[in-house]
Amino acid sequence: MTTLTRLEDLLLHSREEAKGIILQLRAARKQLEENNGKLQDAQQYQQNTLLLEAIEQAENIINIIYYRYHNSALVVSEQE
To answer: Does the keyword Coiled coil apply (predicted)?
Structure first.
């Protein structure tokens, strides 16, 4: 649980850091979605799909933790 505690501490003190994490996750998601649009074998497609699900869960966890500490949603636009 040390990792989760450090993530909570990070999100508690730095809105910009939280936004940066979300932007990194979005970039990874975009790359995986592009890869899933290309021809690939079933195993690679399954791995990419599992990674996409993990990214979505990570974004949800970050948003929940941020909301818990700040009582407001973390809004991240693509231009940031």
So the answer is: yes
